[in-house]
Write a structure and sequence with these properties.
By secondary structure, this protein is α+β, with helices and mostly antiparallel strands. InterPro entries: AB_hydrolase_3, AB_hydrolase_fold, Carboxylest/Gibb_receptor.
């Protein structure tokens, strides 16, 4: 777990916002959430579970799942200039910019 030294694993609340001990999802200060995953990502299932958990916890929140077809985990970091990475970034920018509308 290079991202979070000292972690106890994939269900550490610092790595998994749905784990016991993690801050309550219903307390998030947003009404819109975008969850991004890649079709071939080994954590794809967790992205979908997180989106469902946020939707259940927030009730009236808008939860959008953006899944990139034909790609794998962190594809946008390995090929940041690739077409699908640029498309992902553009969709994220559009989502953020729409927050004020």
């Amino acid at each position: 777990m290079d991202v979070c030294p000292g972690t106890t694993g994939m269900d550490d609340p610092r790595m998994n916002p749905m784990a016991p001990g993690a801050p309550a999802l219903g307390r998030m200060a947003c009404d819109r959430v975008m969850v991004c995953a890649a079709e071939g990502d080994f954590l794809r299932w967790r992205a979908h579970a997180y989106a469902a958990a946020v939707a259940a916890a927030k009730g009236n929140a808008s939860v959008e799942v953006l899944e990139t077809a034909g790609e794998s985990h962190v594809f946008h970091l390995f090929d940041p200039d690739g077409g699908k990475a640029k498309e992902l970034l553009n969709r994220m920018v559009t989502f953020v910019n729409a927050a004020g509308t």
